[in-house]
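step=encode ok
step=design start
structure_in=
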């Protein structure tokens, strides 16, 4: 095997991880514009903050 062939041979560790990656989600996000991706991220951050707030309130009522 030449050095060039080795350079492009699949890495077994990467191949193992790729089995667990949902590539449809990656493709879906890559179809979005940068602005759409940022808006989606901001909505996710708002949701995460709401979950944290609800968790704090739940702890106070125990």
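sequence_out=
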């Amino acid at each position: 095997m030449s050095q060039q062939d080795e350079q492009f041979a699949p890495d077994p560790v990467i191949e193992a991880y790729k089995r667990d990656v949902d590539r449809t989600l990656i493709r879906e996000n890559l179809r979005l514009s940068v602005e759409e991706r940022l808006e989606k991220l901001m909505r996710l951050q708002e949701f995460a903050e709401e979950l944290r707030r609800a968790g704090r309130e739940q702890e106070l009522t125990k």
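step=design ok
step=annotate ok -> The two ends are 65 Å apart (CA to CA).
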